[in-house]
Amino acid sequence: MNASSGEYWLGIDCGGTYLKAGLYDHTGQESGVCRQSLPVLSDHPGWAERDMPALWASCVRCIAALLRQQNVSGNQVKGIGISAQGKGLFLLDKAGNPLGRGILSSDRRAGDVISAWQRDGLHQQIYPLTRQALWAGHPVSLLRWIKLHQPERYQQIGTVMMAHDYLRYCLTGVRGCEETNISESNLYHMANGGYDARLAEMLGIADISAALPPVVGSAEICGTVTPDVAALTGLTAGTPVAGGLFDVVSTALCAGLHDEFTLNAVMGTWAVTSGISAEMGAQENHPYVYGRYAGGEGYLIHEASPTSSANLEWLNQQTGGMAFDEINRAVSALPKAATDVLFLPFLYGSNQGVEMTAGFYGLQSLHHRGHLLQAVYEGVVFSHITHLNRMLERFPQAKTLRVTGGPARSEVWMQMLADVSGMPVELPQIEETGCLGAALAAMVGTGVYPTFAQAQRHLHFAVRRLEPDVGAQMAYQKKSQRYQFLIDALGGYHARCAAADSQEKTHHD
């Protein structure tokens, strides 16, 4: 078969569970996608790590397989972009080699660091500068933890990066931190638009500033494919590689966000609700998380927690495994909000306090696997609603929720989200928003479009719309209230446990 003669842009998406690579023409039409499973390594409770050389090897295999499957030659690929899960920490040593494993954003080892910072009132000092929460999976929290618990490793740090920065470095040999991602690191001054050495000093990691590479724009060309990488992948040496995107920015672009009337909910490893604004708010009722939007065109404002569909994946693994269609049939066969079974979707983190963990409540012998699956669907939606309600305070004009991510393929789950939220749910028919968003960064970087806004306007994809069921909304409101009652009760349980532990420690001391 002869190779196709078109021009393509390669988008790489490094997520929590998969690495994907997709080829797109200049209109955003997908030619093909290749996927590689990415294991999460957890040697200790709360740890979530990734082998960095193995990640790069997966990326190489994925690119090579995609080009081979699509019969595309390297010289047809005109640019490359990378989208990835945000936060976390991927370190190089002073020689430019991986320094231990990469740490993912869902890692919770730095919980004690966060607790200490909160006791010291550091959040109130940091937030006006960074517009970020203090979170265990942030680069700064993990750096502080490494400094306290792995001082020898800390002394060897040569470069601080996040996932797509590491992959871009592997492709090009050039170091940089991409702006949409590094702007949410607590090392970046949001109003000034760059690193601020005062932040690292306040966080007890002042000596890390020398290891921070230059900030690069989403569409800025940050190196080209090296000859060695070309030989491994089938790409052509010299192919430009753009800075890339934080994956929630990729998703917002592909969801068509361009004003304050629509919000984007992402359902993946993380539950994210996002909106875009041209400016930062001055007086707000909630400490919203801000980040730079693609190309520096305003701000992405969002609420997020790792409380989404990864909970379903875990349950499915533990109970023998079912196809997604089979799970949906099992849930749809049950009346809406019909049982008292509740699930707290906090296997990988919580939006209700760092001490909160996952669990079922209300189980009786009459319940079966379908009831457990339904409770997981509901718990994930209730967690999303926590974020959505806060975002609606910031975006009171928003009337529609555009949803992306794996669960968007489930009409049962999406109808549940519409019913609970009372908002119309729109489903852009784009399978791989991370890959497409990354490819758009490459298109802007190579001059196909002058801005991301213009690139976005050239995307033409069908959008499905689900209207809320008013009758079901009342039943879900009652169950959602019970969900919050359970969380409140467990807050008391954890407070009593902490008090008991403190008394025991005092007694032993």
- Separate helix tally: 17
Q: Tell me the radius of gyration.
A: 22 Å
CATH class of the domain at 8-243: Alpha Beta
Structural class: alpha+beta
Strand proportion, as a percent range, falls in 15-25%
Q: Could you give the count of β-strands? A: 24
Summarize the structure.
Helices cover 39% and strands 20% of the residues. It has 509 residues and is an alpha+beta fold. The strands form eight sheets. Strands 18-19-17-16-22-23-24 form a seven-stranded mixed β-sheet, sandwiched between helices. A five-stranded mixed β-sheet has the order 3-2-1-5-15, with helices on both faces. Strands 4-7 form a two-stranded antiparallel ribbon.
Give structural attributes.
single chain; 509 residues; alpha+beta; Nucleotidyltransferase, domain 5; seven-stranded mixed sheet; five-stranded mixed sheet; 17 helices
Description:
The chain has 509 residues and is α+β, with helices and mostly antiparallel strands. Among the domains are: 8-243, Nucleotidyltransferase, domain 5, CATH 3.30.420.40; 310-384 and 470-501, Nucleotidyltransferase, domain 5 (2-Layer Sandwich), CATH 3.30.420. It is 39% helix and 20% strand. The chain contains 17 helices and 24 strands. The strands form eight sheets. Strands 18-19-17-16-22-23-24 form a seven-stranded mixed sheet, sandwiched between helices. A five-stranded mixed sheet has the order 3-2-1-5-15, with helices on both faces. A two-stranded antiparallel sheet has the order 4-7. Helix 14 links the parallel strand 22 (400-404) and strand 23. Helix 10 (247-254) packs across helix 15, helix 11 (310-318) runs antiparallel to helix 13 (369-394) and helix 12 packs across helix 13. The longest helix has 39 residues, at 470-508. It starts with 7 loop residues before the first strand and ends with a helix.
